[in-house]
Amino acid sequence: MAVATVGLVLAACTSGPVRRVSEPSARIQQLTVRADGNWSVDLRLENYSSIPMRFDAISLALEVDGHAAGTLVARPGITIGPESADVDEVVLVPSAAAKFAVAQALGRGEAVDYSLEGSVTATPDEAGQRVFDDLSRRSALSPAPGLPGVMR
Q: Residues 59-81: pLDDT tens digits?
């Protein structure tokens, strides 16, 4: 009986932690209207996996207040630890309709709805690169008090 118990304990030790790869997520942490009219978008990349993941490429169509704003395209090349997040800045030349919608929201001190649709290409630790192409996020941005031209 004692030998069997020791064998089970040793077997449990060799299995190690579960390596789970989950679909990552992205959302806008902050949108800043720059002096040249372009937007600086701080994109929060979230790794829900139990292992580190390197974020290689991002291609996300951005819609603001029902208007296509453009596509956020980036090659961050950053590794995010398990169940953690990091931010990557993406500069976007927005469409005129989206630019106007954000300007109106900022001027009125109101929130504006946004959506992201697209793909994230990432490489889980010690595994092959994967394309997660069903990324979809809907949320809203509100003017940041005391920070002109900034929405969070």
A: 999 999 999 999 999 999 999 99
The CATH number of the structural domain formed by 19-138 is: 2.60.40
Here the tokens at position 3 are: 């030998």
User: 46 near 88, Cβ under 8 Å?
Assistant: no
Domain boundaries, the chain: 19-138
Rounded CA-CA distance 48/30 in Å is: 21
Cα→Cα distances 152→21, 73, 142, Å: 29, 20, 5
Contacts of 9 (CB under 8 A, 6+ apart): none
98 and 23 Cβ atoms separated by less than 8 Å: no
- Alpha-helical runs (H) found in 16-119: 96-108
- Please report which confidence band the pLDDT of residue 29 belongs to, taking 50, 70 and 90 as the band edges: very high
* Kind of pairing between the strands at 78-80 and 39-47: unpaired
Report DSSP letters for 62-87, one per residue: EEETTEEEEEEEE---EEE-TTEEEE
Enter the tokens of residue 26: 């992205």
pLDDT digits (tens, 9 = 90+) for 84-93: 999 999 999 9
End-to-end CA gap in the chain: 61
